[in-house]
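Provenance

Sequences were taken from public entries as deposited. Structures were produced by running a predictor on each sequence independently, with no templates supplied. The record for Ribonuclease HII from Savagea serpentis is shown for reference.
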Amino acid sequence: MTKETIQQIKQRLQHELTEEELTRYRTDSRKGVQQALRTYDRRIAKEQEAYAQFQRKCAFDDAYGTRVAGVDEAGRGPLAGPVVTAAVILDPASREALIQVDDSKALSKEARTRLAELIKEHALDYTIDFSTREQIDELNIYRATSDSMTRSIQQLNIKPDYVLTDAMPLQQVEVPTTPIIKGDAQSLAIAAASILAKTARDAYMDELDERYPVYGFAQHAGYGTAQHLTAIREYGIIDEHRRTFEPIRSMMK
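Predicted structure for Ribonuclease HII:
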């Protein structure tokens, strides 16, 4: 039997192997094979930990009922654009497709976009709500976010058994509701909502970037970066800038 080359073994290790195959490779004394095995072991350990985290998030949600709505927001801190919230009820029968769902801030933009489509495909129901710049300035950011979260829940076609929010207490919701500190790290439903809210807001800011390219909204999403502040000083304030946020408020005096 011809001995496998190191490259052939590396290719085999891209897939999950039987214990018999692994034992055979572990007895191979070639340094390249042993290095490939260490890479394989790290990958498998990472996948196992990700699955364990996924199971913990599912168990967390299941403790509150069968149809749990997760609610989260994106955009409370920027100087421009809306705050966006999402409510998601996941289908317990198809959650296995969402193992990679995590806090939106821990994912790349490409990963969020891909996962947002999976979430929409496997959710029993979801809604996305926008609170405009005008509403933020009129109400304040906390109230505008709370109201948007409430609307996102009320717009669901399926009434949830329970609502879990990411740290935001809600008063005007007809079903039991609990704010969860760092909820997107504990609840799969909240993490899914965080991704839907973030991708929807990013899409809005990308469109805004096309209308006002000098401000760089596609790069900073409206946050107060040096690039954004320089553009404001050079080109002025537009309608999407939040008048009640500093330094916008001071610049308008």
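The chain has a mean pLDDT of 95.
The CA atoms of residues 82 and 132 lie 5 Å apart.
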